[in-house]
Amino acid sequence: MTLEAFFKTLKKSGHKDLLKALSLLKLAANGELPKNSDLVKKLQGKHIDGIFEFRANSIRIFWFYDGNNIICTHGIIKKTDKTPKKEIEYANSVKARYGDEKQRKQGRE
Questions:
Q1: How far apart are CA 19 and CA 57, in angstroms?
Q2: Count of domains for the chain
Q3: 66: CB partners within 8 A, 6+ apart
Q4: InterPro entries attached here (predicted)?
Q5: Element (H, E) at 52
Q6: What's the CA gap between 26 and 4, in Å, rounded?
Q7: 72 near 61, Cβ under 8 Å?
Q8: Fewer beta carbons within 10 Å, N or C terminal of the chain?
C-alpha cells in the first residue's frame, strides 16, 4: 500500500494519531527532523541498512535518506512491541529498487 493510500485509510477510519503522523512528516519536509527518539528511530539489526521510522504512537512510517532527502517507503499501524520483519524487508526492498532506478536514470544521462 502506498503511503498516500495508507493515510487515506487512516483518515477514513478517523485514526486518533493521524494528525501527529502528518505533523512529523511536515517537520521533516521543512528540514526540522525531530531529535526526540520517541518520534524518530533508526532501526537496528541484521540486514537493516539505513532504515528509519517516524513514530506517532501506533503509527509507523518507514523511510531512508537519499542525500538530504527523506524517502518514505510505507506506513503501518504497529500492533506489537517488535517491528514485524516483513515490514523491514519491504522497506529494504523499496530502498533497493529506488537505488537501482536512480542508478539506471543516471546511466542514461
A1: 11
A2: 1
A3: 98, 102
A4: HigB-like, RelE/ParE_toxin_dom_sf
A5: strand 52-56
A6: 14
A7: yes
A8: C
C-alpha–C-alpha distance, residues 9 and 11, integer Å: 5
Helix (H, G, I), strand (E, B) or coil at 2: coil
Region at 57 (left for phi over 0; alpha for psi -120 to 50; beta for the rest): left
Query: Among residues 78, 83, 85, 98, which one has the least CA distance to residue 15?
Result: 78
pLDDT of residue 92: 95
Burial of 98: CB neighbours in 10 Å, binned 0-12, 13-18, 19+: middle
pLDDT value, residue 53: 95
For the stretch 41-85, pLDDT in tens is: 999 988 888 999 999 999 999 999 999 899 999 999 999 988 999
Quick one: which of 91, 63, 77, 86 has its CA closest to 9? 77
Backbone angles phi, psi at 51, to 5 degrees: -100, 135
